[in-house]
Amino acid sequence: MKLYGALASPYAARVHMFAMLKGIDLPLESAPGGMGSDEYKAINPTGKVPALDTGAGLIAESEIICEYLEEKYPEPALLPADPVLRAHSRMVSRITDLYVAPHNSGLIRQRSPAARDQAFIDAAAGNFANAFVYLSHFMGPGPFAAGDQPSIGDCAAAPFIILLKQSVFPHFEEIPDPTETDPRLKQWWEALQDHSGCQAAVSELDEALEKFLKYLMGRLGLSQ
Ligand SMILES: N[C@@H](CCC(=O)N[C@@H](CS)C(=O)NCC(=O)O)C(=O)O
Prior knowledge:
Layout: E1 2-4, H1 10-22, E2 28-29, H2 38-41, E3 51-53, E4 58-60, H3 62-72, H4 83-100, H5 118-138, H6 152-167, H7 178-181, H8 183-194, H9 196-220
This protein binds glutathione (GSH).
Glutathione (GSH) is lined by residues 9, 11, 35-36, 47-50, 61-63.
């Protein structure tokens, strides 16, 4: 089994964190020819990462890959046993995908004073504020996304929060870090730091992202 993708992708990072917490050795490989390339589209027509080569077929979509790994390797469980808590965990993933993820794109360019468009930033700030209210509301009882153990929702939300902590919150006062202002999200973020497996995944992602963002800022001709 191998995973096409790189840690700089918060979607690939979701699967990587999930596999780490499960104790599965899941090597990460660059998409052949690069994401979006014709060579890679011959393997995965969406051109997107991650995709899991199971040896018996390809599985796309980060959340579906995690669900597959959960079924194939049930222990340790990364979905709560209780059906309501399972739904909370899955809601955190879905809210991350539908309401958090889309508003990140485009913001990095806004860091350049010359490109700054206040209306764009204000719209993103409003969208993020709503998304964080949804996340906080639909997390189950804590301290993790749903219950007292990490689960799929934690693996979905954490990489995006790490990305925003590096590339958005420190640069736009209009978009405050909800893990500092929202009590439930603060409790959640602290729980990740206090759990050795989550902490290891979070610092690996943090490091990989920092390197990638440095490279990206250089390519865009923007300062850090
Ligand atoms: N819904 C997909 C989203 C994956 C996605 O958008 N991946 C980005 C990288 S972060 C990508 O591969 N973009 C390349 C492209 O769209 O060509 C998932 O959950 O796996």
